[in-house]
Specification:
By secondary structure, this protein is of the alpha/beta class. 33% of the residues lie in helices and 21% in strands. The structure holds tricarbonodiimidic diamide. It comes from Luedemannella flava.
């Protein structure tokens, strides 16, 4: 079966049987106060509008049996997987591994590192823990997609210009067709949100396609 969704720069065709929804880093550390996002000087309110449409998207994809994968950015408690260059980013007062209101910042197992309650993964939905911005670097994602025969990725999550872009670029170089859902990705910076989406679909779709979650769900049904 093939489905087609209106998208930029032109309609995106996909087979739901070989398509995965990838939900990038919808973690408390990015979406709630006191976490990594805020420690970098960002206003987390900018991202919170993505939660409701992503919740609806997850419900629809679960109902229709689409393969769903979640990712989380974070590090081992001993920080052995965190390059010193990454550790030095942000305010000196609050960095990766430091104690925050929701546990140690961006550390696996801490409350802030986990996915927000509204979008909690369900049993059977793989959760990929990644040390980098891209979901392919130093993770099992590539092997998992190959094992499942996935060729197209529908990508949502935060932030548009950082982990979503990095993952979409990594995916393109590995031969995946990528559709980014504009209302389910968010940036701390409105101008980066707009331009980040334009960059994906520019030059005839240099990294992929952009559509809305409503149009995607309509195509899936
Ligand atoms: N800072 C920022 O915009 N993003 C990140 O650090 N990680 C993700 O995008 N997940």
């Amino acid at each position: 079966m093939s489905a087609t969704v209106p998208a930029l720069p032109y309609p995106f065709s996909f087979d739901p049987a070989t398509t995965a929804l990838v939900v990038i880093d919808m973690q408390r550390d990015f979406l709630e106060p006191g976490g990594f996002g805020e420690s970098l000087g960002n206003d987390v309110e900018q991202l919170r509008r993505t939660i409701a449409p992503t919740e609806a998207l997850l419900a629809g994809c679960r109902e229709l049996g689409l393969f769903i994968i979640h990712t989380r950015e974070g590090h081992l408690p001993d920080l052995s997987d965190c390059p010193p260059a990454k550790l030095r980013r942000g305010k000196p007062s609050m960095r990766i591994g430091d104690p925050g209101p929701r546990g140690r910042i961006l550390i696996r197992g801490e409350e802030g590192h986990d996915i927000v309650d509204e979008l909690a993964p369900q049993p059977g939905e793989p959760v990929i823990d990644k040390p980098g911005k891209g979901a392919f670097y130093a993770t099992e994602l590539g092997d998992l997609l190959a094992e499942k025969g996935i060729t197209s990725l529908v990508v949502v999550g935060v932030t548009t210009e950082v982990c979503v872009h990095t993952t979409v670029r990594e995916a393109n170089d590995r031969g995946y067709e990528c559709l980014v859902l504009s209302d389910c990705v968010g940036s701390y910076f409105p101008e980066f949100q707009r331009i980040g989406l334009e960059m994906v679909a520019a030059q005839g779709g240099i990294f992929g396609w952009v559509a809305t979650s409503t149009d995607f769900m309509a195509a899936l049904r």
